[in-house]
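S., here's the first fold you wanted:
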Amino acid sequence: MRTSDIPEEVFNRAIREIVHEINDILGVIRSMAQFLQGNEGLGESVKEGLKLIEETAEEGIAFAKRLRRIVPVLSTEPREVDLKELLGEAAEEIRAKHGRDVELRLIVGDRELKAIGDPEGLKLAFEEILMNGVEAMPQGGRIEIRAEAEGGEVLIDFADEGEGISDEVKARAFEPFFTTKQGRLGIGLNVARGVARAHGGDLELESEPGKGTRVRIVLPRESS
């Protein structure tokens, strides 16, 4: 059975329980390693081993936090969000962390683009899509981010110059943990679509081998 065949509510509950258990176990391991390092009678090699255990536990806890992002937790008090500003912040963060060889071009008109929602959740969705684009262009390239209002909706397109994906891969692109990239969780598009749908919108994916990929987020526009 694929993870896509599991009911979403069951899948989300399982993820929350798994992450909770992982955090508890690793938290105890980290605390004990920290405590034992204070024993003055230990040799240097033992202390180094305990330090390694502590650091590994911390890495595991950080991994669990990333895993938790599969189930977006949106604010219970949605508020007005300036999408132009939020897109700019997401682009700057990705550029600072991963975009040394990637040009991020933001194209937004003068017209205000606002929505009602959770800014942290939306920013997370934007960052996950941008990260996918960066990873699709290991030799560098450009990601064009274009946002515009159309009727009662805001359309946000992320287009990269990567190698694109086949129809077979595209059919599984939203399946949690499915990835063609070594060392990745395979949750980015799943997270982004979950955030979009939680805001009453959706996410669309277009891609062809050799022609790059375009991801579109559609959000309800705030009434002016």
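And the second, which I think is the more interesting of the pair:
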Amino acid sequence: MLIHRPLQEMRQTLSEGLRLLVISVLLGLLLAGILALLLTRRFIAPLYRMQAVARSFAQARYDERTGISQQDEIGMLAGDIDRLGGRLEAARQEREQLTQQRQDFLSAISHELRTPLTVLRGTAELLVSGLVTHEAERGKYLHQMMENLSVLERLVGDLLELSRLQNPGFTMEMTPLDFREAIQEAAGSIQPVAAAKAVEVTVKLSESLPVAGDYGRLRQLVVILLDNAVKFSAAGQTVEIRGQRELDSWQVTVEDHGCGIAAADLPYIFDRFHARRENNAQGTGMGLAIAREIADRHGIAIACTSEQGVGTRFILSGRLLAETL
């Protein structure tokens, strides 16, 4: 008995130890399984979500987002994917807007071409038919044909000019010049048009504006802005050109006191496929697009402020030629 009882106690102790070991192992496995599940949900599930979003992007559904906000590498990757989706969505909207603007532009151009062509054909058929016998009446119809031919010539010319300026291979002859001289010459060339409408054009340029640029194109830029200002001014109104320089920069404004531009149209007036047609029966709707292309080629910032019934101000600003400072 003295030997048997300790052995039995040892067996019981060993059995309890084994049982505790088994329980501990099972609990460890259970905890490991739970931990693995949590880690899987933390690391694998976000990867599956990012994969699903990437597939959505491949199907042009750029509005999908991962919705992951983890503060780790996976969260950073998810953020990059979400930002990529935002950029793709913005690019898609811009592409759709550009396509719509192009369609609107082509529709407007088709209308502009069709109208003078229809008038030309009708007038020519009338003259050929011999129904018009009086010389004065024939002269009136011939004058009408010349006016419509001028419209077509101006439209085609603007289309070619805009296409040329938008061609990356098109270069301008950049030389040192005084922008003030180009402005004064542009103002002189627009005077007959302004005088015909009883609109006064005033130029206030006290200092020279040395820049590097293409003289003819800079003159064309100012002519476009002045022509636009005169066109939308009423008889007796004034179009003002002001220029100033400060340190290493300059600014030129062309301001009229005409009908102004609607707030809804203002953000789009320089767009190549947007035309403001109100009160612009003689325009092609491409003048300001050409002006912006010329300004961009010279590194000149061009902006516009306007209020209907008050007037419009175009603002040109750029850097003075460094060698003259």
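Why I say that: The chain has three domains: 4-90, 100-166, 175-324. Residues 246 and 320 are 9 Å apart (CA to CA).

Talk tomorrow,
H.
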